Amino acid sequence: MAFPEDELIEYPIDGVLDLHTFRPEEVKELVPEYIQACLEKNIFRIRIIHGKGKGILKTIVWSILEKHPAVSGFRHEDNAGGWGATVVELKRNRN
């Protein structure tokens, strides 16, 4: 018997990843997969919305980004709600 949480959900690859609907344990796999999907679509700037809250999702996301070989840099978004989102720059030429 399949449970709703086991069903595959098609997520749009448009450079914006909103993590509000995901559990923290899903993020560790989701973020690298999303980065790869963006690279395949030649999207080199990603906006990851993790929310402000207690900072748990942001901490997980930043830990992933620090280690990911395709990431050239990342920062808080530059607007009033910037602490709730991270802008990620991906490397265009990876060897």
What features would you describe in this structure?
With 95 residues, the chain is an alpha+beta fold. It is 31% helix and 21% strand. The protein has a 4-stranded mixed β-sheet, with helices on one face.
Task: Give a quick rundown of the structure.
By secondary structure, this protein is an alpha+beta fold.
What class do helices, strands and sheet pairing give? alpha+beta
The termini sit apart by 44 Å
Please outline the major beta sheet.
Answer: 4 strands, mixed
On the 0 to 100 scale, the average pLDDT is 88
How many domains, in number, for the residues?
Answer: 1
Return the CATH class: Alpha Beta
Order of helices and strands: EHEHEE
Give a quick set of tags describing it.
95 residues; Ribosomal Protein S8, Chain: A, domain 1; 2 helices; 21% strand
Task: Chart the SSEs and their pairings.
Layout: E1 16-18, H1 24-40, E2 45-49, H2 56-67, E3 71-76, E4 85-90
Parallel strand pairs: 1-2
Antiparallel strand pairs: 2-4, 3-4
